[in-house]
Structures are given as C-alpha cells and as structure tokens.
C-alpha cells in the first residue's frame, strides 16, 4: 500500500511539473540549490526558492521592518555564500550595518544607496537588477504598482539577480508581478528552560501569495547562522485568515 | 615648490660627435667649417685645436697658416640642433621637462633630484654618463636658468648654487656669462666692467639707458627677479579634447554625438597610456558667449568610452544650448593609473572592485535624485553610532572584523527617542515602557550593557543598554542615559529594533 502511495505521489509530482510547464513557468537552471528555508521552500513551484525573481515583503510597524531586515539578511547570507555584492536602496538608511553580520552577511559587501524620492529608488532598483554582477538588490519602498513590478520582473529574468522589495506601510497592497509576497512578524522568543533573558530571534513567516505555489504560514527561528523551523502549535493553524479567501 | 634648473654645456658638441664617428680623428687637431660669404669659417674646433689657438669664428685659411696639419671637415647643416635634440630626448630619463638652449640643454629638475639621492649625485650621474659617451660637458644646478647657464660656462669652483645665493655666484663671473650680445659685452669691457658684480648693483635705469633693455632683463632673470620659461622638447599635453562645430548645436542628439566623438579620442589616448579618468568636465561654449559645463566622476579609474558616455547622458538635460553650442571641450580633470586587470577572469562571483559593478555605481551616483552611495567598514568604537565608518574607496578592505559578541538591533534610530518607563529597581530593566502612546509590558530582558561615552570626542552621558522583549514578542533596544543621582528622574530612550 505504502509503495502505491509513493508511486502516486511521484505521479502527482510529474503531473504538477507538466502543468507548470504548460502554464509557461520556466524552471531555473540551477534548481537544486537550497537556501536553508526548510519547509518554507516547499511552498514554491518545484519546491525551490525562486532565485532571480522579485520578492515582495509587507510590513506596517518598525518592529516588522526589523524582523523583515533580519529575515532578508538570512536569505542574503545563503545567496552570498560564494561571495558577491548586494545593494540596499532606501530613502534614509535605517539598517544598522554591524547588526547584519549576526545574520551571516558581511556588512562591507552591502552597498547602501540613498535616494530622495520613491521614483529614484525604483529607477535605481531597476538599474541594479539589470546588472548581472550583483547577487541581490533590496529596496525599501511604500508603493509599487503592477507595471513597475512587471518592469522589475522582466529585468531579473535576464540578469538572474534576486530582488527584494520591502514595502513598509503601503497605502494599497494591490496586485504585483512579484514571485512571492511575504509578511514577517516578530514572535516571542523561546529561551531554553530556566535561562533568563531574551532568546533567539523568532518570526512568523507568512507567504501571502506565491506565483504557481501554495501560500502558507510557518514559524522560524534564527540560530547559529541558519533558519530552524519551529514545531507549529495547534492553535496557530487557524491563523492565516487571508488564505481562506477564495473567489 | 622652489624651482631648480640644471644647465648642461657641451663644450665641443659637434667635434666630440665627429670623433666618436671617426676614431682616427681623436689624436688630430681638426675643425668643422662652413662657407660664409665665400670664405670657409670655422664653426667648431676640437680640444686639441683649441690648445693651438684655433677657435670658432676664425677663417680656415688663417688657421691653416698657423697649424699646417689642421684637418678641415665640412659642417653638415643643422647638425648641432639635431644632436642637441637627440641628447635632450635621452635626458628625459632625468626629468620630463628638457629644453634645448643654443649650445646645451636646460633641465627643469624641480622635484626630480631626490630620486638620485640629492642634487650632487644627480649632477654627477648625468656628467659621468655623458662623459662616458665621449662628450665633454659641464653642468651646473641653480635656482634660475640664467645662473645655471652662467655657472656651467664660467663657474670656477661650485657647480651647485642654492636658491637665493645667485647674487654671490654671479658677481665674480664675466658679463659674457649673461648671454649678452657681443657689442654690449664689448661696451662693458671698454668701461672697465669686467665682472657681473661690478655693475650688478648699479641703478637699473642707468643700465637700461646705456646698454639696452636686454642686459637688465637677462640680469633680472639670472637673479630670479623676472620669470624665464623653457620650451620643453616633449610638452606634457593636458588631457583635453576640443570639438568645434560648423553649425551651432542645439539638440540633445547633437550633444550626444559630440560627447561620443570627444570620448572616443580621449579614451583611446587614456587606454594607450594605461590610465583612467576619475573626473571629467564637459564645457560647452555657446554662440551667445556664455559657457555651460557638466561634470561627472567615477568610482574607479576607467577609460571605457561607453560607460563614461552613459554618465554624461544622464547630465545632458542640464545642458542648455540656448542659441546653439559652437565649441565642445572635454577635459579629464582627474587621472589615475588604471589597473590593467583582465575583468573576465573571475566570471563567477565578483567582488566590489568589479568593473561592471563600478560602472553601475557610477551611474547610480550620477543620477540627480540619488544623494548617497556608501559602503561601510567596521570602526573600533563601542559607541553604536560610531561602530562603523564610511569606506574611502569601493575596493577598501576592512582592517578589523565585524563584532558579533554583543546583540545589536537590525534597525537603529538615527536619533534615540525618549520613552516613559517604569523601572522600580535600579540597574534592573524596566517593567514596562510607553513609546508613541503604546504601552509595552516587558516579559524578557537582557542587560545592562554599559557603553561609556568617548569623553575625548563628545560630551554625551554614558548609556546602559537593555535588550527587552514585550509580551507580543517585539524586541527593542532601550538605554538609560547617565547614572543614578539623588532625586533626579532617569531619562530612558529607545534606540533600535531587534529582528
């Protein structure tokens, strides 16, 4: 019986791949590489974190901004494992460079760009995403509309640079051409039994939208330079209300 | 910088050259002669002939009468100039500015002599090298061209004259040392003025009236009271390109074409010399007499025309042609040696020095809306705002490592914001705090981490930092400013947000 399910699962996987191909989804060439997100990666098509696409992060509070910066830092550390440079574009730099080292990224390999207006940030991001010498580019914005995100997506499809757009306090969430939309919230840290003080950073990672994938909710913590999935308590299963909205 | 000049005098330039070409002539007295007004006149004599009383300017027939076995050789026209130029080019190894004087060379040695360990070894080196070649030379170094020449020709003892000592060096020399016309020299001799010192302190007006303006000018130049310039053999051309236009240019397309043409020539020259530009200025001279200019800068030296054009293309909207531009002038105002690195070598994961990346950063920095392109390196300070510093260049490597032994927030407020806290026990973290109207009861806390102010740099109070987590799991970095004092409320601040 178990063999049968195994066969069926394989078959279903094959069919899903066919479906994706028919829908026009091109799987990236180096599809085997994991970036250490564990179970979260299974939400993406072919269970691979899409490198060379645009990821959108949404946050409303400065605490969420801090958590998102840490989370992006963790992903950047995996992307920049073999060296390389990334760009961080914002209106006024609030990221504290020495802190990003805690997430495994050498802060001197990040180049900070400060622009006055959102328009200039978008321009800089598009120029950066066209340059295939970069590993990634992060931009902090409020608003981005569908056409703008489409331009970015087209730029990365050629250059294979990963783009991160962090939208703090967007007026309108809207529809974008990004590969995924994330929301990171800080969660109470767990300290080891009997140990006082603040524990390891812990986040609620919510994938609100995934192109050709399945949205979901996970809890991760950052420990010893990698993401560690936290076993999900039962009550949190009903938390992602937004995903239920169908039709 | 104080100017220094060297004068090299070739005493028997053409004769020495001929002796080198024909070794048989070495032990003979011979002269070079050319026809002047139907007579053969001696233009140069070798040392042996000179000891027999033969000198340049004599008629060959007279000389033959005095020395019957004198060899007479025709003087090839233009030989002296050709030889001096060749020797001058050879001397460029000692200084970039070499000029040809009537019977020798003038070297601008300013800032060059220390490479040979001072002026004396420098002088000795050049004289020895030229004598080894077979030329009879005398050389002197002084603060002015006139004094250097005078001492090289007539100086008796010291051949290196300090700047400011020209007066003493010149005074025992004959007036001919000043390169005067022969009738002025004769008039001086007739008046009994046998040395420069005898008329040096006479009123200049009297000298000018009696001997003409030339004497005063040469004297002032030799004493350093008037400027004298040399015309270098190989002038150092500035990195400037001009493009005059037949019709005034008024369109953006026209300006683009002009920039492309200028850059093509400029970059070809830069690449040929192994250099790259860091800054460039484009000056546009308009028909109405006004000039508009735009400037660009790059993060690393580059001679890549397409890239520099892209940087200028961002600035084209700032150029207002008005009635039209009739002359474009492109100047590379800052030049650096470019690394001839093969950029394609590391195709995989480039570092910050990568050329394509540098071009992207230049492009970003050139855009008007972008005001800062920065990279940070660790700095050895505990004070959080000072724990990092701006990198000077794009390729600068960190000297120390980034510290991770203490918790630091991912987001730091530019200015700590005051909060209201309830902290009943001294040196304990607060129980709750209020920030922007919201109450945060604290569940977990770490600290304090005391960071002392750097009293030699600023006057701020010390800070006791706490990492706290409220009941919703949001993590903050708080600090108490200053130490406890009787009856005074403690001021608390929020400084950052942890991931």
What does this structure look like?
The complex is a heterodimer of chains A (247) and B (499). Chain A is α/β, with parallel strands linked by helices and 247 residues long. Chain A has a domain at 51-188: Rossmann fold (3-Layer(aba) Sandwich). Chain A is built from 5 helices and 9 strands. Chain A has helices at residues 2-22, 62-79, 97-100, 118-130, 146-159; strands at residues 54-59, 86-90, 110-115, 136-141, 162-168, 180-186, 202-210, 216-223, 226-229. Chain A has a 9-stranded mixed beta sheet, with helices on both faces. Chain A is globular. Chain A starts with a helix and ends in an 18-residue tail after the last strand. With 499 residues, chain B is α+β, with helices and mostly antiparallel strands. Chain B has 3 domains: 1-236, Alpha-Beta Plaits; 240-343, DNA polymerase, Y-family, little finger domain (Dna Ligase, domain 1); 411-497, no CATH class. Chain B contains 14 helices and 19 strands. A 6-stranded antiparallel barrel of chain B has the order 14-15-16-17-18-19. Chain B has a 4-stranded antiparallel beta sheet with strand order 5-6-1-7. In chain B, helix 6 (145-154) packs across helix 11, helix 10 packs across helix 11 (213-223) and helix 12 (252-272) packs antiparallel against helix 13. The radius of gyration of chain B is 38 Å and the shape is elongated. Chain B starts with a strand and ends with a strand. At the A-B interface, helix 2, helix 3, strand 3 and helix 4 of A face helix 14, strand 12, strand 14, strand 16 and strand 17 of B. Strand 3 of chain A pairs antiparallel with strand 12 of chain B.
């Amino acid at each position: 019986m178990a063999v049968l399910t195994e066969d069926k699962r394989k078959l279903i996987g094959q069919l899903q791949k066919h479906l994706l191909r028919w829908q026009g989804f091109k799987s990236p060439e180096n599809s085997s590489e994991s970036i250490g997100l564990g179970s979260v990666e299974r939400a993406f098509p072919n269970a691979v974190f899409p490198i060379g696409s645009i990821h959108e992060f949404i946050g409303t509070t400065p605490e969420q901004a801090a958590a998102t910066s840490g989370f992006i830092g963790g992903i950047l550390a995996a992307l920049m494992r073999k060296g390389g440079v990334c760009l961080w574009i914002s209106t006024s730099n609030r990221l504290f460079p020495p802190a990003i080292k805690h997430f495994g990224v050498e802060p001197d390999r990040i180049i900070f760009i400060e622009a006055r207006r959102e328009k200039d940030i978008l321009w800089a991001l598009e120029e950066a995403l066209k340059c295939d010498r970069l590993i990634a580019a992060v931009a902090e914005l409020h608003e981005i509309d569908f056409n703008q995100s489409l331009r970015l997506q087209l730029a990365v499809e050629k250059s294979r640079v990963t783009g991160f757009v962090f939208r703090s306090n967007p007026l309108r969430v809207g529809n974008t051409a990004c590969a995924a939309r994330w929301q990171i919230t800080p969660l109470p840290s767990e300290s080891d039994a009997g140990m006082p003080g603040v524990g390891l950073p812990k986040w609620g990672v919510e994938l609100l939208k995934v192109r050709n994938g399945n949205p979901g909710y996970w809890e991760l913590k950052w420990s010893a330079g990698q993401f560690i999935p936290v076993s999900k308590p039962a009550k949190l299963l009903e938390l992602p209300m937004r995903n239920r909205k169908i039709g | 910088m104080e100017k220094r000049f060297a004068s090299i005098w070739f005493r028997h330039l053409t004769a020495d050259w001929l002796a080198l070409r024909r070794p048989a002539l070495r032990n003979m007295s011979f002269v070079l002669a050319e026809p002047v007004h139907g007579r053969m006149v001696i233009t140069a004599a070798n040392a042996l002939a000179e000891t027999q009383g033969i000198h340049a300017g004599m008629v060959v027939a007279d000389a033959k009468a005095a020395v019957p076995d004198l060899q007479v050789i025709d003087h090839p026209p233009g030989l002296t100039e050709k030889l001096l130029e060749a020797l001058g080019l050879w001397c460029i190894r000692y200084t970039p500015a070499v000029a040809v004087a009537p019977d020798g060379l003038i070297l601008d040695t300013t800032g060059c002599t220390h490479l040979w360990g001072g002026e004396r070894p420098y002088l000795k080196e050049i004289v020895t090298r030229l004598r080894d070649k077979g030329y009879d030379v005398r050389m002197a170094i002084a603060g002015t061209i006139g004094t250097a020449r005078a001492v090289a020709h007539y100086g008796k003892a010291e051949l290196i004259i300090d700047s400011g000592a020209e007066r003493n060096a010149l005074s025992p020399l004959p007036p001919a040392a000043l390169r005067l016309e022969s009738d002025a020299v004769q008039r001086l001799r007739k008046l009994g003025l046998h040395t420069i010192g005898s008329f040096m302190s006479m009123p200049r007006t009297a000298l000018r009236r009696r001997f003409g303006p030339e004497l005063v000018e040469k004297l002032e130049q030799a004493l350093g009271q008037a400027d004298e310039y040399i015309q270098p053999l190989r002038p150092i051309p500035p990195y400037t390109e001009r493009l005059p236009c037949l019709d005034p240019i008024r369109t953006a397309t026209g300006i683009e074409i002009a920039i492309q043409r200028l850059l093509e020539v400029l970059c070809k020259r830069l690449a040929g010399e192994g250099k790259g530009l860091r800054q460039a200025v484009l000056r546009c001279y308009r028909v109405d007499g006004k000039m508009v200019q735009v400037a660009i800068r790059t993060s690393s030296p580059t001679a890549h025309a397409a890239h520099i054009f892209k940087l200028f293309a961002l600035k084209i909207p700032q150029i207002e042609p008005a009635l039209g531009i009739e002359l474009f002038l492109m100047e590379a105002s800052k030049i650096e040696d470019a690394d001839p690195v093969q950029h394609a070598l590391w195709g995989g994961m480039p570092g910050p020095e990568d050329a394509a990346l540098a071009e992207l950063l230049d492009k970003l920095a050139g855009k008007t809306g972008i005001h800062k392109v920065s990279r940070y390196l660790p700095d050895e300070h505990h004070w959080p705002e000072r724990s990092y510093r701006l990198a000077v260049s794009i390729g600068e490597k960190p000297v120390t490592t980034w510290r991770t032994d203490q918790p630091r927030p991912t987001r730091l407020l530019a200015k700590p914001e005051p909060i209201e806290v309830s902290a009943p026990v001294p040196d304990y973290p607060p129980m709750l705090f209020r920030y922007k109207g919201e109450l945060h009861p604290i569940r977990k806390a770490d600290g304090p981490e005391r960071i002392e102010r750097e009293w030699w740099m600023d006057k701020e109070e010390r800070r006791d930092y706490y990492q706290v987590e409220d009941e919703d799991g949001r993590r903050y970095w708080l600090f108490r400013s200053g130490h406890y004092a009787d009856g005074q409320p403690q001021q608390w601040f929020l400084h950052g947000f942890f991931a």
